[in-house]
Amino acid sequence: MNNVEIKAFNLCKEVIEKLGFELVEVTYKKEYGTPTLTFFIYIKRGVTLDDCELVSTTIDPLLDEADISNGELYHLAVSSLGLDRIIKTNDDLRRNLNCDIELKLIQNLSKKKEVIHGILQSYDEEKIVIVDKNGKEKEYIRSNIEKMKPHIDFKRLLG
């Protein structure tokens, strides 16, 4: 994280938590030529547009007063994590407990990349446990996982 991201995160974390949300990440980068400060928030029921507006209007004066960008103009954005956010940290795993996730295992010399999905049952620093569609628990070593993300069933979402 750069200095602006660190300052913004530390300045707004407690305020956002008092509103009932978890502050997951702050990014400060150019988007379409304009510096953009984006706050990614989480709440179990799902983040709404009204939630983003509430957080934005609450933190905007704090950010202005602290002048975290040292006078540089920027666009403030507040967003949900998104449906397909990569699962990297223990906090990401915590937010996805009892949810359907998808794993891509690191390719072995003898196999194609294996993609697995199931319900995240538990995790620790070294492994995760998922329950597959047959109800069977399977354990995977985290260092053997190339990528994890929520499994999105578009048929179920649209149907």
Number of strands: 8
Backbone structural class? alpha+beta
Low-confidence stretches: none
Total of domains:
2
Strand order of the largest sheet: 7-6-5-4-8
Helix coverage percent of residues?
Answer: 25-40%
What is the CATH domain class of the largest domain? Alpha Beta
Q: Which shape, going by the Cα principal axes?
A: elongated
Give the averaged pLDDT, no decimals. Answer: 91
Strand content: 25-35%
CATH topology of the largest domain: GMP Synthetase, Chain A, domain 3
What is the CATH architecture term of the largest domain?
A: 2-Layer Sandwich
| CATH 4th-level superfamily of the largest domain | RimP-like superfamily, N-terminal
Overall radius of gyration: 19 Å
Distance between the termini: 40 Å
Q: In sequence order, what are the helices and strands, one letter per element?
A: HEEHEHEEEEEH
Question: What is the number of helices?
Answer: 4
The major β-sheet equals: 5 strands, antiparallel
Write the SSE topology.
Layout: H1 3-18, E1 22-31, E2 34-42, H2 49-66, E3 75-79, H3 90-95, E4 100-105, E5 115-123, E6 127-131, E7 137-141, E8 145-150, H4 154-158
Parallel strand pairs: 2-3
Antiparallel strand pairs: 1-2, 4-5, 4-8, 5-6, 6-7
Helix pairs in contact: 1-2
